[in-house]
């Protein structure tokens, strides 16, 4: 059963009294203690002048007095800057770089496009400091990928790496961003790939990653790191702990059972994040967390971005496409994502919209039905502003950050508030404003209202489309429908639809 529908979910004791991230103030870079000057200039190059609250909170718990003593679970809204919140302290902790490279930090995310996005953030702050970031996402063959991650001695001389002892292999990267399936492939099959030296494990979009088994990635990773971490070598940290932390957004809670001053690098430190973090003990227990500290924004589990405006648009089911077209027209040039309930309806709706002759809006599809190559290309074009409207299914957009998306449209009312949070969260990111419109019929209004009650900051106004606009669209709609029919018949005659390749 989905967690949202369970009547009473027992909450783990450490989750009952979270530290409230919203009590942290933004902090300008010059006031961030122990921020390496190279890190500071890398951030400035990214046009970042201050840290967001969740970033300050994590810095406090990792580089500040928290000193990564406890594993961290973070529930913070979409677009609040969670990626940098974990990337920054990890990069800081991996300094100074040792002459022998080894894989010391691993970030696991559910999708390939998200992994590419996270890698870009790490690249921006880690490369200037001499740290290298790798990617394990199945973009190329296992063999090609492993050669980008590990030096295989004797490669040039034609020595079969199978005959070499693990001693001969050396990592090319300090940090790895991976999707679970390909990660397991490397752990099980790739000679020279090891998690033995891992000090930091990040599980991003944790509720999604813990919900599905993905070839038992979590037990596999934890097992591969278990025998390790008895040696020191995380680099940095202790000096910071000794010196103390001048900025304290909250008084630190005592952490029972943890020896203060014990070396945090003698274990694998874990950071677990989501905008809708699971509270299901059965799922969280798999992570084998050590004295976890729960950081959360606000009181409720679900919280929408501060500058998001939510609207409902009530219309009859059979004229929904007309309302959508009228809405898209009224939004003009603004970048927009339209969510539907399934890959099939994504495909159909995108085709239908493209059949509206006078719409003059470029629209493309993005869904799990497409080949990864097509999907990534579409996303790149959308990022570059080469088209305005992306019609998308749910599962692919977790965590996706596309600059300039001002509007999200739910073509179908989402089933769960969690889905609403992640969809709406593609806009109003990083303190920007954004709007989320949900189309619904009269008989869905009650359910939608109950759904929205589950989230903080979820006021929802009604948005009206003038009836004359709908009237005007009727004849174009009929033409679009017959055009779509033709396309469908045509594609049935062909063996395969090219858009899926
Ligand atoms: N300190 C900052 N100053 C300005 N922009 C920032 C800062 N930190 C992050 N950002 C920007 O905020 C946007 C959202 O960040 P990020 O993708 O990490 O959010 P998130 O909390 O992980 O969201 P989601 O839950 O949807 O994955 C990104 O475009 C990022 O570049």
From TrEMBL:
Domain named Helicase C-terminal: residues: 323-473
Reactions mediated catalytically: ATP + H2O = ADP + phosphate + H(+)
Pfam family, any one: DEAD
UniProt entry keywords in alphabetical sequence: ATP-binding, Helicase, Hydrolase, Nucleotide-binding, RNA-binding
Keyword field contains ATP-binding: yes
Entry EC no(s): 3.6.4.13
Uppermost EC category: hydrolase
Positions of transmembrane segments: none
CDD domains: DEADc_DDX51 (cd17956), SF2_C_DEAD (cd18787)
Span of domain Helicase ATP-binding: 63-295
A GO molecular-function annotation: RNA helicase activity
Coiled-coil portions: none
Function field: RNA helicase.
Family of this protein: Belongs to the DEAD box helicase family.
Entry text on domains: The Q motif is unique to and characteristic of the DEAD box family of RNA helicases and controls ATP binding and hydrolysis.
The protein's name: ATP-dependent RNA helicase
Organism expressing this protein natively: Vigna radiata var. radiata
């Amino acid at each position: 059963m989905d967690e949202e529908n369970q009547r009473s979910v027992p909450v783990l004791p450490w989750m009952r009294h979270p530290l409230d991230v919203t009590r942290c103030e933004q902090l300008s870079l010059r006031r961030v203690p122990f921020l390496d000057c190279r890190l500071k200039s890398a951030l400035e190059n990214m046009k970042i002048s201050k840290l967001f609250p969740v970033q300050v909170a994590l810095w406090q718990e990792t580089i500040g007095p928290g000193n990564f003593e406890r594993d961290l679970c973070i529930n913070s809204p979409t677009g609040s800057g969670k990626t940098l919140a974990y990337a920054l302290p990890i990069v800081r902790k991996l300094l100074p770089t040792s002459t022998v490279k080894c894989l010391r930090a691993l970030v696991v995310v559910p999708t390939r496009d998200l992994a590419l996005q996270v890698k870009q953030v790490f690249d921006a702050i880690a490369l200037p400091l001499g740290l290298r970031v790798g990617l394990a996402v199945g973009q190329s063959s296992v063999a090609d990928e492993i050669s980008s991650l590990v030096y295989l001695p004797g490669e040039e001389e034609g020595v079969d790496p199978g005959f070499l002892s693990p001693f001969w292999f050396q990592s090319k990267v300090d940090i790895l961003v991976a999707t679970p399936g390909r990660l397991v492939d490397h752990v099980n099959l790739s000679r020279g790939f090891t998690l033995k030296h891992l000090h930091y494990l990040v599980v991003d979009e944790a509720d999604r990653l813990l919900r599905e088994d993905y070839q038992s990635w979590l037990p596999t990773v934890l097992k591969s790191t278990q025998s390790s971490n008895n040696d020191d070598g995380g680099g940095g940290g202790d000096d910071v702990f000794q010196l103390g932390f001048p900025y304290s957004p909250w008084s630190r809670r005592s952490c029972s059972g943890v020896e203060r001053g014990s070396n945090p690098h003698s274990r694998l430190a874990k950071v677990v994040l989501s905008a809708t973090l699971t509270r299901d003990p059965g799922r969280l227990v798999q992570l084998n967390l050590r004295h976890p500290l729960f950081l959360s924004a606000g009181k409720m589990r679900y919280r929408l971005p501060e500058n998001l405006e939510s609207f409902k648009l009530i219309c009859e089911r059979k004229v929904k496409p007309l309302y959508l077209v009228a809405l898209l027209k009224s939004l003009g040039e603004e970048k927009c994502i339209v969510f539907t309930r399934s890959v099939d309806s994504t495909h159909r709706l995108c085709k239908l919209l493209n059949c509206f002759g006078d719409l003059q809006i470029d629209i493309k599809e993005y869904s799990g039905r497409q080949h990864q190559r097509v999907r990534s290309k579409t996303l790149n074009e959308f990022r570059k502003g080469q088209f305005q409207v992306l019609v998308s299914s749910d599962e692919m957009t977790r965590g996706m950050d596309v600059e300039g998306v001002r509007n999200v449209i739910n073509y179908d009312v989402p089933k769960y508030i969690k889905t609403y949070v992640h969809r709406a969260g593609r806009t109003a990111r990083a303190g920007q404003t954004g709007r989320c419109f949900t189309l619904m019929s009269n008989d869905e209004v009650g359910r939608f209202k109950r759904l929205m009650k589950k989230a903080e900051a979820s006021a929802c106004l009604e948005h009206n489309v003038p009836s004359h606009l709908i009237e005007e669209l009727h004849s174009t709609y009929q033409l679009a429908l017959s055009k779509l029919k033709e396309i469908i018949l045509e594609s049935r005659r062909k063996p395969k639809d090219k858009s899926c390749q």
